[in-house]
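Researcher: Quick test of sequence recovery. C-alpha cells follow.
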C-alpha cells in the first residue's frame, strides 16, 4: 500500500510555485446560493509588446456563468483566453471592469477554496514524488481527501514517481488531483488534456463529467474542438480579446450560416462552381468535393444541374463554424 505522507512543508505561494492554483485555507461545500458562479463585467486588459507597443489582450468581455454549468472557452492563439483565465483566478488584475466568483473577488474565492484551477505550466516541485505532492497540498485542506483525489486523477500507478520524471500528460493529471483537493465549487481548466493520450483524455473527461453531474461548475479552455462539442453545455468563442459567440454548439454552428454540400463532380463542373461568387471549397477527399455557400439549397441545385452524383447536404461542423466566426471577427 502507498503511504500518504505530509512530511514536506509547503513553500510560499507564487505564480510559478506549487500553490499557484490554490491557497492555504479550508475547503468549501458545493454552492447552494443564488449568486452566479462567475460574473465578468466589461473587463479590459492591455499589455506592452517587446517594442513597447500596446496590445489589447482582452477588450470589453462580459460573461455570466451559472452554478452547475460546463462552459468551454475557445479561440485561436492570441484570442485572450489565457489572460481571461489569469484574471478570473486573480493572478492578473483587469485594467477596467469587475470579476466576481460566487459574489466574491477572485483572490478571496481562490483562498477560500471555492475556486481552483488546472493550469498548463508551473505549480509543481520536480523533486517531490506524486504522492508527496498531493499529501503536502492535502495538509493545507483536508488530508482525508488525498486518497480519493489521487484515485480520481488516476495517480496511484505513478504515486512514487518523481514529478520531474512524469510525462506532460501525467503532470496534468497531478495538477488535476491537486485542484480537486479543496473540493472547489468552480473548477477552471486551461488546456487540461494537453499531453495526454487518448485513453487518459477519455478517463479525465469521465471524471469531469461526474463532477459536473454533482453540481460543480466547470470552465475549460481547450484547442480540441471535439472536447468542447462533447462536454460543454455552452461554448464561449473568443477572438482578438472579444467574445464573438456565446451559445450551445448547435446554435454556434447555425450562426455560421449555411450547410456543407458534397458530391462527386467532374473537374469541369468543380471549376464552374468555384468560379461562382460565394462558393468556397472546404474539402476534397476520395473523389468527393465539399463546398460551402450561404444558400446551400441553391448550391445543391447547381451541383445537380452540373451532373453531380452522391449528393449530400450536411450541417457545418463546429470546426467550420469556429473558422467562419473567428475569420468574420478578425
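Model:
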Amino acid at each position: 500500500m502507498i503511504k500518504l505522507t505530509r512530511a514536506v512543508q509547503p513553500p510560499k505561494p507564487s505564480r510559478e510555485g506549487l500553490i499557484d492554483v490554490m491557497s492555504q485555507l479550508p475547503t468549501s461545500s458545493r454552492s447552494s446560493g443564488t449568486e452566479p458562479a462567475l460574473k465578468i463585467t466589461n473587463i479590459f486588459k492591455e499589455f506592452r509588446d517587446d517594442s513597447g507597443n500596446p496590445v489589447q489582450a482582452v477588450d470589453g468581455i462580459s460573461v455570466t456563468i451559472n452554478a452547475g454549468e460546463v462552459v468551454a472557452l475557445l479561440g485561436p492563439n492570441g484570442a485572450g483566453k489565457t489572460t481571461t483565465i489569469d484574471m478570473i483566478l486573480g493572478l492578473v488584475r483587469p485594467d477596467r471592469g469587475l470579476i466576481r466568483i460566487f459574489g466574491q473577488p477572485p483572490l478571496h474565492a481562490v483562498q477560500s477554496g471555492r475556486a481552483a484551477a488546472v493550469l498548463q505550466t508551473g505549480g509543481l516541485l520536480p523533486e517531490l514524488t506524486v504522492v508527496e505532492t498531493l499529501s503536502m497540498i492535502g495538509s493545507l485542506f483536508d488530508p482525508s481527501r488525498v486518497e480519493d483525489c489521487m484515485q480520481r486523477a488516476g495517480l496511484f500507478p505513478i504515486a512514487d514517481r518523481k514529478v520531474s520524471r512524469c510525462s506532460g500528460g501525467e503532470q496534468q493529471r497531478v495538477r488535476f488531483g491537486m485542484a480537486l483537493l479543496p473540493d472547489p465549487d468552480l473548477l477552471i481548466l486551461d488546456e487540461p488534456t494537453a499531453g495526454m493520450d487518448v485513453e487518459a483524455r477519455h478517463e479525465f473527461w469521465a471524471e469531469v463529467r461526474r463532477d459536473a453531474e454533482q453540481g460543480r461548475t466547470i470552465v475549460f479552455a481547450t484547442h480540441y474542438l471535439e472536447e468542447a462539442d462533447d462536454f460543454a453545455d455552452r461554448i464561449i468563442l473568443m477572438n482578438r480579446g472579444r467574445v464573438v459567440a456565446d451559445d450551445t454548439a448547435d446554435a454556434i454552428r447555425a450562426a455560421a450560416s449555411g450547410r456543407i454540400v458534397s458530391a462527386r463532380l467532374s473537374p469541369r463542373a468543380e471549376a464552374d462552381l468555384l468560379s461562382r461568387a460565394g462558393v468556397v471549397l472546404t474539402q476534397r477527399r476520395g473523389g468527393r468535393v465539399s463546398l460551402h455557400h450561404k444558400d446551400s439549397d441553391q448550391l445543391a441545385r447547381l451541383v445537380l444541374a452540373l451532373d453531380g452524383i452522391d449528393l449530400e447536404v450536411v450541417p457545418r461542423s463546429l470546426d467550420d463554424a469556429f473558422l467562419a466566426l473567428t475569420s468574420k471577427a478578425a
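The longest strand covers residues 54-65.
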